[in-house]
Amino acid sequence: MTPAPRHHLLWLTEVAWTRLQKQSQDSREQAVLARWQQMRWPVVVRRAEADARADELCAGIALPPDAQGNKPRLALRVQRAEVAASHAPYQLRDIAAARLRGLPQGWQAGMDELQQQMQAAGIALAVFGSLSWQAITAQAYVRSSSDIDLLFVPDSQAQLAQGLQLLARQAAMLPLDGEIVFPDGAAVSWKEWQQVMSKDTKSDARVMVKRPAAVALEPAAQLMAALAAKEGQACAV
């Protein structure tokens, strides 16, 4: 069975929430789970653990940072039958249009500009991490030290190059971070990709790749070949 894509949002059934609360031995965790159930907030898909069964999904809840800046997280496992609905990560255009409260100074204008530039280039960006959690729950996740975590899914090598150029330009004004998502769900830090591919030895470069169920160093050329194949398939249709 195909693993669920990382960062996807899952809304759980009442049965799932009841089971998770009964299984937990921690009163604070039980309170969080009850709160999420009451508010009908989603959980987020994380990388599958090695011993997860085929009918299980590994998911999680991130809480707002505490006074010391710690970010508590709950690691959960849910059965596929306990998922009432799912959704891909929300788009930057939707987050920017929502005009969230409590964002650091300059973020809103910067996100608007980035979205306009990406839209003009035909590129859609998705959001995960603190900014996404704040948009979902209206709780205070984002701080001045937070990153804006973005998912960039290029359709072609040309779009990859153009998108990276725009991200690098806006990163001078916004704390941008995130991943490029290649075919088959292979995700690479876009900052690492830029750094590795700028070197003279890029022909044999390897990058850290996150997949739905594994993390490993892989040849960058292999990822580019998969992207080229995807582009070729699109052109053939």
Structure, described:
A hairpin with a 2-residue loop joins strand 10 and strand 11. The protein has helices spanning 14-23, 27-39, 92-98, 107-120, 130-137, 157-170, 190-197, 220-236; strands at residues 9-12, 43-45, 56-62, 73-79, 83-87, 125-128, 148-152, 176-181, 187-189, 206-211, 214-219. A 5-stranded antiparallel beta sheet has the order 4-3-2-1-5. It has a 4-stranded mixed beta sheet with strand order 6-7-8-9. The protein is globular and about 55 Å long. The protein is 38% helix and 24% strand. Helix 1 runs antiparallel to helix 2 and helix 4 (107-120) runs antiparallel to helix 6. It has 237 residues and is an alpha+beta fold. It folds into 2 domains: 9-87, no CATH class; 92-236, no CATH class.
Radius of gyration: 19 Å
Give the N-to-C terminal Cα separation: 27 Å
How many separate structural domains? Answer: 2
Spatial strand arrangement across the major sheet = 4-3-2-1-5
- Helix/strand-derived category reads alpha+beta
SSE sequence, one letter per element:
EHHEEEEHHEHEHEEHEEH
The helix content is 25-40%
Instruction: State mean pLDDT (0 to 100 scale).
Output: 92
Beta strand count: 11
The geometry reads as globular
Give the uncertain stretches in residue-range form.
none
Beta content = 15-25%
Number of helices: 8
The major pleated sheet works out as: 5 strands, antiparallel
